[in-house]
């Protein structure tokens, strides 16, 4: 049968009018093979060759991509064959990526995704399920319900708990604090409606200096005054503890303020630190506060029977942020919010537009008897079928397999910390990482960590990071801790080995020899 004449204007009409299997299936199979080959060419020709593409500099890469004008080109007017479009990906895009697959790419919690996760993304997009109202994605809603149950079980939440999948931790933290405002603050104020405007004044939410920026952003966007967030200093290991929070709550109460919630962290972005959750839960119980735990990264430690004790007492939280596209090794994007009481989500976000069939009543639904319409449990209307990739890859590896990958990366972090601690030219903080983040610094011969050399040493770390990036031999970030700059390795890459860790340290020493001395009297690095 010839291609559908309605699409004869395109050089590949059989890839658009696809309803006749005999006509379109062979071209679609060729397209799939071409696309998969393009992906594998990227993997083996680029991603495993360099940790980041070249050139690494913004201005140079911008000119290379956009051309001499440095500006985006007009939209294409005429159609092109798929092979040409794929060739453009290979030519213009593939050589210039931050490559999560590279074994010395230890960046912003960006792991190489599991291949069944990638397949899940493909199948989710082919089926085009909208997991917002049940009729738009019937089995998709069941998959999300099941994945959420798995996540609730993982953190120790009971059967009344529930949640929903989000784009990431920022949105999950936002939704959590919206629940805190509309459910918990309303309860404290004995209001029949969600508090707004002046009812948000004089409220306090407690978090450490290691809390994610999204906590402050969420409070701001939710209408709270800027002084709502009370930052409490973390301890020497960057953890929030009972005594300092209890003191802050007591001080605020005496000042006539209203303590509302604690925003703890289990696996901070900076250091992987885990706040003392049991202690904070005791404070929250005694003071009538909501306990939210940002475990976007750290909750995955619960996958490991060996390492789950590193993030204890998550079950005592009222809400938990979790990000499977971090330590569950999922393709972007998939975050999530879990709440101890499913009714709290419905109370905060419930609505019933007349054009949605089967909208749930405002009282708590029972998913076993009423369809789950996820738009009633969060901010988004249209929602991607994020759950499928996690569902497939969790089945493929099992909890044991996922936990094994978590243990492997924790062991590598401990190895990097030991190597730094036993070297004369590196220092590490904290000495033993709680999870798989390691913050360390290169100290050239003759330089000291404090005094007049401190600012020069900060610049030295940034220069080393930039030099490593330009080399393509590895990639990691820098961060600021207690006012100083540190190299930061977020080890969630299951392809990394001890040999890669050794090579990174050797590369830093080698690169340091070609950099200006960070302080007067400093020589080249030693080789401890």
Helix-strand layout with pairing:
Layout: H1 21-47, H2 58-66, H3 82-93, E1 105-106, H4 115-127, H5 138-155, E2 162-166, H6 169-189, E3 203-208, H7 213-221, E4 229-232, H8 242-254, E5 258-265, H9 277-287, E6 290-294, E7 319-322, H10 324-327, E8 335-339, H11 342-349, H12 387-421, E9 426-429, E10 437-442, H13 454-471, E11 475-481, E12 484-490, H14 498-513
Parallel strand pairs: 1-11, 3-4, 3-5, 5-6, 6-7
Antiparallel strand pairs: 2-8, 7-8, 9-10, 10-12, 11-12
Helix pairs in contact: 1-3, 4-12, 5-12, 6-7, 6-11, 8-9, 12-14, 13-14
Under CATH, the homologous superfamily of the largest domain reads Type I PLP-dependent aspartate aminotransferase-like (Major domain)
- The number of helical runs is 14
Strand content range: 5-15%
The helix/strand class is alpha/beta
Kindly, what is the distance between the CA atoms of the first and last residues, rounded to a whole number of angstroms? Answer: 72 Å
Strand ordering within the main sheet: 2-8-7-6-5-3-4
CATH topology of the largest domain: Aspartate Aminotransferase, domain 2
CATH architecture of the largest domain: 3-Layer(aba) Sandwich
Order of helices and strands: HHHEHHEHEHEHEHEEHEHHEEHEEH
Radius of gyration: 26 Å
Quickly count the domains.
Answer: 3
- Estimate the helix proportion, in percent: 40-55%
């Amino acid at each position: 049968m010839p291609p559908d004449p309605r699409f004869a204007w395109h050089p590949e009409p059989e890839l658009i009018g696809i309803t006749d299997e005999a006509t379109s299936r062979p071209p679609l199979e060729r397209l799939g093979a071409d696309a998969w080959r393009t992906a594998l060419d990227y993997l083996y020709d680029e991603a495993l060759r360099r940790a980041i593409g070249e050139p690494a500099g913004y201005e140079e890469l911008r000119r290379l991509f956009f051309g001499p004008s440095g500006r985006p080109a007009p939209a294409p007017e005429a159609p092109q064959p798929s092979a040409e479009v794929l060739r453009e990906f290979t030519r213009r895009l593939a050589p210039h990526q931050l490559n999560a697959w590279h074994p010395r790419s230890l960046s912003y919690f960006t792991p190489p995704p599991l291949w069944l996760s990638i397949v899940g993304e493909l199948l989710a997009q082919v089926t085009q399920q909208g997991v917002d109202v049940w009729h738009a994605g019937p089995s998709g809603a069941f998959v999300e319900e099941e994945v959420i149950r798995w996540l609730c079980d993982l953190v120790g939440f009971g059967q009344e708990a529930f949640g929903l999948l989000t784009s990431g931790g920022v949105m999950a933290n936002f939704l959590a604090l919206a629940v805190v405002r509309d459910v918990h603050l309303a309860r404290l104020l004995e209001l029949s409606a969600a508090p707004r405007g002046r009812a948000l004044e004089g409220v306090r939410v407690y978090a450490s200096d290691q809390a994610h920026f999204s906590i402050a952003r969420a409070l701001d966007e939710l209408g709270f005054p800027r002084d709502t967030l009370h930052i409490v200093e973390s301890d020497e290991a960057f953890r929030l503890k009972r005594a300092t929070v209890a003191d802050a709550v007591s001080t605020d109460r005496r000042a006539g303020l209203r303590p509302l919630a604690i925003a703890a962290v289990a696996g901070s972005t900076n250091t992987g630190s885990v706040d003392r959750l049991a202690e904070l839960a005791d404070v929250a119980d005694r003071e009538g506060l909501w306990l939210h735990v940002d475990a976007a990264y750290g909750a995955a430690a619960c996958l490991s029977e060996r390492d789950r004790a590193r993030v204890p007492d998550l079950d005592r939280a009222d809400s938990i942020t979790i990000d499977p596209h971090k330590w569950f090794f999922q393709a972007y994007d998939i975050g999530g919010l879990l709440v101890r009481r499913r009714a709290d989500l419905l109370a905060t976000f419930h609505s019933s537009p007349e054009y949605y069939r089967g909208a749930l009543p405002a009282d708590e639904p029972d998913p076993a008897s009423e369809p789950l319409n996820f738009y009633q449990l969060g901010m988004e209307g249209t929602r991607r079928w994020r759950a499928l990739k996690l569902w497939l890859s969790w089945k493929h590896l099992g909890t044991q397999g996922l936990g094994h990958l978590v243990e492997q990366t924790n062991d590598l972090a401990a190895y990097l910390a030991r190597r730094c601690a036993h070297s004369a030219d590196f220092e590490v903080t904290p000495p033993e990482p709680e999870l798989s983040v390691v913050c360390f610094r290169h100290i050239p011969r003759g330089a000291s960590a404090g005094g007049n050399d401190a600012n020069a040493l900060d610049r030295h770390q940034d220069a080393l990071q930039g030099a490593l990036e330009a080399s393509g031999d590895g990639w990691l970030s820098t961060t600021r801790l207690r006012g100083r700059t540190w190299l930061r390795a977020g080890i969630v890459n299951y392809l990394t080995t001890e040999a890669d860790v050794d090579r990174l340290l050797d590369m830093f020493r080698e690169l340091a020899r070609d950099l200006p001395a960070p302080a007067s009297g400093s020589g080249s690095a030693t080789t401890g």
